[in-house]
Structures are given as structure tokens and as C-alpha cells.
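Schema walkthrough. Field components (list of strings):
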Amino acid sequence: MALAIAVHFTITDAKNKSSTTTVHVPTGFSLAQYLEFGTAMGQIIADLSDGVLTGISVSIPLSLSGATIRAVADIVADIAKKGLLIAGSAIGGLFARFNLPTYDEGHTVANTDEIDMADSDVAAFVAVLEGGAGGASPCDLRGNNLTDVLSAREIFRKFQ
Amino acid sequence: MPIEIITTVEDRSGTKGSTSVKVLDTATLAQLNAFAPLWATALNNVILGKITSVFANLIGSTFGITGNTGTVDADVEHVGKFQFRTATGNRVNINIPALDENAIAAYSSDTLDEAAPEVAAFIAAMETGVTVTGGTISPCDIGEQSIVDTLFAREAFRNSGARK
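Field assembly_structure (string):
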């Protein structure tokens, strides 16, 4: 069974408090059609609310049926242990950051916190970031293509 | 605006975290579905957690929406509570925050006036769908069962909870 697509509408009131309501819609339409639905339904919801419609978003579950991923987290997997990668953008001075939860320290250069860019698994991941996959291309926040990974290291986040 | 791909990862203790990658908004849905397993496989090989989901998140536009101005007494804890039924009998609950008081049938009732234009338009959209270019998109439940009728529509209030 496919999971329905969620269209979220955020309403903000006079006290600047926000609340979100969700309408589910079926799969089988294009991204443009879902966005068009969002705006049209947004008008209907705005007419029914005394608040201000401040946000519309569409959340689409993507299929992992073709992915090779583990069924159970490794015994030492920990969300607080991350890989931090910074990639440069086609526009000089812009970049994108990636935090990878449960990073595998086995890909780290010995006696350093640098992620080993020569490692085959790391290289494959970096190739997806830099070159895209399946016709979709990673980009920075402003929609500029990523060019190359500038740095990659392991980090730890406070977790209580 | 770029499309955000959000991947959720679970560690051995069951704690969840997420990572996101933005992709160009020129991608089609088919391309996103092709990207997801390749991305997940590459990510899986550099982490130790279990990837539990990958979602694409698109930001819609409020441009062109008319009358989108709040009133001074708008409060998101005052909601319009709607319950719909699908063709297979499942219930679908939807709350409209900061309900417009004009939607209420009478002040001696908490039932919404389903003949009021704003309420009727929302119910019609939920039951029969919204026309978009090239088709009609009809709301459904999480399992894609179409909504077929309305069980009730009334005003309700949420608990404010603790104030900060």
C-alpha cells in the first residue's frame, strides 16, 4: 500500500502562535499539481480561518524498495555521533552542510577526525552529493549546484 | 526553491535523527523516486544506523491567496473540528486552526453551519476534490482511501498547556 502524500497548512494567529493542519491526497500526480492543490486548498482554508495562512508544504514519502540498507541498526550506532561534510557551491562563497547521524568511524583516517575521502564508501557518497543520482542534483539552499566536498570530519553532538 | 530530501535514521537505542539534502527543483517526482534509493544506499554505507524513511518536502506558495489577513481575536486554539469518512469507513479528522466564528450555526450551538459558503466550500473540496491543471485531486486517508462524506463539523477548543 502506498502512503498518501501530506499537504501541510500553517496558520498563525493574532498572538503569533502557529498551528498546522494536514490534508492527505493520493499518489499519481505531478509535483506541480500537488503545489497547485496546496494553493487552491490554502485559499479555502484561509477563508474558513480568522488566522493568517503563513505556510504551505507538500511532504512526499519516497520509495526505498530499490535501496540496499540494513534492517537493524548496528550495535554501536549512536545518533550523537555524526559525520559533518561541507560542500562548495557553483557560486563562490556559498556552501551546504550535511550532518550524517550514526556515522561509522570505520571510515575515519587513523588517529585523526578526518573522514577518509579515499575510502570507497565515502567516495560513493560524495559522488552522489557532487554529481547527483537518478536525475536529481543536490544543491545549496539557494538552488545552486554543489561542486565539491570541501571538508569532511567526524563530530559529536551533546546528547543527554 | 530547492526540494528538501529528509532522511530519518534510527540508532540502536531507538533514538531518531535526520539529515537533509536539497536538490534542484527541476527534478520530477520520478527522478526523486529514482534518487531516493541511490541516496539511501550510499548513506547507509557510511553510517551504522537504520534508515527508516526518506521524504521529499516542497514549499508551496501563498501568493495569490486573497483575504489572507488575520483578525485581532484569531486564536489557533479555537478550531473547526471536521470528521470525514472514507469509502472503506475509515475516519479522517481535520482541525482548522483559528476558526472563523461566522462558520458557527448559532451561538447556542457548537455545530458549524454547513450551508455557510466557507464551510460548504471546504466540505466540497474534501469530499469531491480540487481541480488542478490536468485533473482533480481528491483528499483521502493515509492509505489513499477517498473521502466520501462528512460525519460532523463543529467548533472545539484545545488545551493551552503550560505557558513559557
